[in-house]
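Structure, all two chains, one model.
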Amino acid sequence: DTAVSQTPKYLVTQMGNDKSIKCEQNLGHDTMYWYKQDSKKFLKIMFSYNNKELIINETVPNRFSPKSPDKAHLNLHINSLELGDSAVYFCASSQDFGTGSNTIYFGEGSWLTVV
Amino acid sequence: QKEVEQNSGPLSVPEGAIASLNCTYSDRGSQSFFWYRQYSGKSPELIMSIYSNGDKEDGRFTAQLNKASQYVSLLIRDSQPSDSATYLCAVNNYGQNFVFGPGTRLSVLP
């Protein structure tokens, strides 16, 4: 069983399109995240939700909109895709948000290529 | 700006040697420290976590933490070619997000 699963794994799309990436975790965790990893492999937080509530919203364009229908799901919608959005997007989850022994678990990643 | 820094590498070691990976962080309030391994084209996977000053050993891996120096390291003993990957240091402050370093690329030569 995949603990954190995200779809699609690969996505090639044209500039200006709108696309969504879906994420689900079956670990019973309260907190979910979206990270972006660019071509230099730098992993950077985008959003974090705790029990469906937005906790972290880093400086990302408004074209990116997360949505958490329940604590097991966190989707990412991207409007008007640009070439610079090409990256790997990782969904992740952790048990809790405010405890020191937290550990974060990643999904397999979604490779987005904008052409 | 809370930062985590690592040498980008590549760090090359011969098979059987000890690989030493280093990480420094800027936020003195950081409480939890993690090492992740990421193979090319794969997602990061947790190797070790450490919360207290000192050493923590797990098999061939030893994590070392020095909060006074804001320094955390990972030693890999008896390095194997299968250890060749990018190693990401991550730091967590209570109630904050996990901040990752840029990663160190390790190459273990047969």
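Chain B touches chain A at residues 31-32, 34, 38, 42-46, 49, 51, 86, 88, 90, 92, 94-100, 102-103 (CB under 8 Å).
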